[in-house]
Predict the 3D structure of the following.
Amino acid sequence: MAATSHAATTDATATAATALGSNWYAAAPYLMPLDNDPPDPGAVMDATGLKAFQLAFILAPSGGGCTPTWDGTDPVSSDTSVAGVISEIRAKGGDVSASVGGYAGTKLGQACGTPAATAAAYQQVIDKYQLKAMDFDLEEPEYENTTAVANEIGAAKILQQDNPGIYISVTTPGTSAGTGWFGQQMLDQAKADGFTPNAFSIMPFDGGFNGAASQTAALTAFNQMLQSTFGWDQATAYAHEGYSGMNGRSDSGEYFYQSDFQTVLNYAESNHMARFTFWSVNRDRQCSPPDNNGQTSGSCSSVPQGAYDFTKYSVEFAGATPPTTPPTSPPPTSGTCTAAPYSATAVYTGGDEVSYQGHTWKAKWWTQGEAPSDGGSGVWEDEGPC
């Protein structure tokens, strides 16, 4: 199904989007436009020189079905909020990519029956916002599901064929070996389908990592996996390899500082890698107190920093020079989560509260091992940002 222009186009796409160079889509950091206390994207652009954002996340409806929604709750078909964000970004000469999947919620690859049906759902997003880029963020539990991964990779190939010139990235968890068994299964599926995206990216965090050296070692190992899977030489593998980091304190308590980002950026540039991004712009501001009492937040970094310090590394990767003058209005700091951080090994019963990704969540009944989200079994109630 080829991309078309519809009469019912929203304000965000009333004028056809002008595609940026692929280096900007490759450098676009993640932004949740509807959650985690989103900053004003125009202010971020002014402060950093950024031109592209990776908007997250497109999911299946929490109530079931094979239609695209934002975060499982806001249908793309009737959206005006994200369309307004896109309009603001494009009015300032920028653009967006949409990221599908992520850690929480039900993914369209799980809900749609075939690659074609999955692609048709994503094509609605491309048409609605006149997208020139899309990211497939394949994480658990979806990437542990062979059928779901086949649907996602098959859909990515269909979208690539039906939307000439679209920038497509595939993002998957990282390990010290590059990526794990399920990540290799995803690469094997892509090889079987004859699908090559602009970048295969790993997320070297939340897996026992410790600073930049462990991340660059994982990127080197992943390069070797790409070589062995696709028969590429080292340079070709790097030209299809990407990095997706997490700024500040990770979900599992690892710390990645500005110096770590600089080291990984140097590695990415010296090896001519295809992508350098991070999670997330929402978190690219200092907490109050700066260490956030040793907790991870979805809306601040939990490390000392200036406004949008980490975003500037993406700007450098894209080939631009970030401005040196700090923003006149510093970004708002996030409130501190008072509930204990969620633990995958803890047992929770009805009424127990936890903090997770900058929000407070309350368990409705007994649960263990199911991360807080609006989807899943429905055991968690989102009580809002901390």
